[in-house]
Design brief:
Elements (H helix, E strand, L loop, with lengths): L1 H12 L16 E4 L2 E3 L19 E4 L4 E4 L5 H14 L4 E5 L11 H7 L4 E4 L1 H22 L14 E2 L5 E4 L2 E8 L7 E6 L4 E5 L15 H14 L3 E4 L8 H22 L4 H11 L9 H17 L2
Parallel strand pairs: 4-5, 5-6, 6-7, 11-12
Antiparallel strand pairs: 1-2, 2-3, 3-4, 8-9, 9-10, 10-11
Helix pairs in contact: 2-3, 5-6, 6-7, 6-8, 7-8
């Protein structure tokens, strides 16, 4: 009995185990600018095959510590990210920015706090509110369902510090400027500008060669944020999904939206329905057929554009 009680006490003192596997298989980071490391995750939706990992966790090494942006979709992903961070520096993580409420970007917070309990979690005010109001539980369950239980053990660690549009965070000698919006990709979105380094983390307001899922957002809002990203004129853009690059990745997204919206508006004025528009627009956008999620997200984007035109 004494041995059983001792074993139970030891188990209670250990961090909660994270399901069938403790960490996703490692993905190497790329240093895309001095002191800026990004793990470019595989593009697609969370699945058994990708172990729920499909975003771009990033971190910046400052004079005082490490600033993380979007540590991933589960505690298992977050632990992999933490291991990669430790390969690049011995400094602790001091701050974590979460770009929006979609759980594939922020449920890795748990692992960051396991490793660096004093780290400050920062997010959009509406992201924090929605997470507290049920979105956190929704995303934890969705990740488990999509990966057949691989992400079990993940617990939602919601940001506690709000980031306002236009706010500057001075961290480790660097300025992190917030560009917030309430009507773009998720209606809870932050883009984070490193002012001195001319780097912009776009979250999912800008993706690289991936057709955006806009089921929680607005078409016109994302178009507006795409223009905003271009106006910032960063040297390096780190998208929520896809490869980091210069402004050409933003220009490609703008070109996609410009063509799609112009064609939807033209055919709407001709009385066409969204399902009649799709084959015509797919042909107009055939140069983008290799983009991730082309087939799954083109139709919903057309339907959303029609709805927003009807509401004008």
């Amino acid at each position: 009995m004494h041995s059983i009680a001792l074993l139970a006490a030891l188990l209670l003192c250990l961090p909660a185990l994270a399901g069938p596997n403790d960490m996703v298989h490692p993905h190497p980071a790329e240093e895309v600018a001095p002191g800026l490391h990004v793990i470019h995750g595989p593009q697609g939706v969370p699945s058994v095959e990708n172990q729920s990992f499909m975003n771009n966790p990033a971190w910046v090494i400052t004079a005082d510590g490490v600033v993380v942006v979007d540590p991933g979709s589960s505690v298992q992903v977050g632990r992999m990210v933490a291991a990669q961070i430790r390969k690049t520096t011995r400094l602790p993580v001091t701050h974590v920015f979460n770009t929006h409420v979609h759980g594939d970007h922020w449920l890795g917070n748990q692992a960051i706090l396991e490793a660096w309990p004093k780290a400050t979690l920062i997010g959009h005010p509406d992201m924090i509110r929605k997470a507290r109001d049920g979105a956190a539980e929704f995303w934890v369950k969705l990740m488990s369902d999509l990966t057949k239980g691989y992400t079990d053990g993940t617990r939602a660690k919601i940001p506690t510090v709000e980031a306002a549009d236009g706010q500057d965070f001075q961290i480790g000698g660097k300025t992190f400027r917030i560009h917030g919006s309430t009507d773009a990709h998720s209606k809870t979105d932050l883009m984070i500008e490193m002012v001195e380094d001319r780097i912009l983390f776009t979250g999912d307001n800008v993706l690289a060669r991936q057709v955006m899922n806009l089921r929680d957002g607005t078409f016109k809002g994302v178009m507006r944020e795409t223009e905003r990203a271009l106006a910032i004129n960063a040297k390096r853009y780190v998208p929520g999904h896809g490869k980091s690059d210069d402004r050409k990745l933003v220009e490609e997204q703008k070109a996609w939206f410009d063509v799609l919206m112009a064609e939807v508006r033209r055919m709407y004025d001709e009385g066409k329905s969204d399902f009649e528009m799709k084959p015509v627009i797919a042909e107009k956008l055939k140069a983008y057929r290799t983009w991730a999620e082309f087939e799954s997200n083109l139709g919903p984007q057309i339907s959303l554009a029609v709805l927003e035109i009807e509401q004008e």
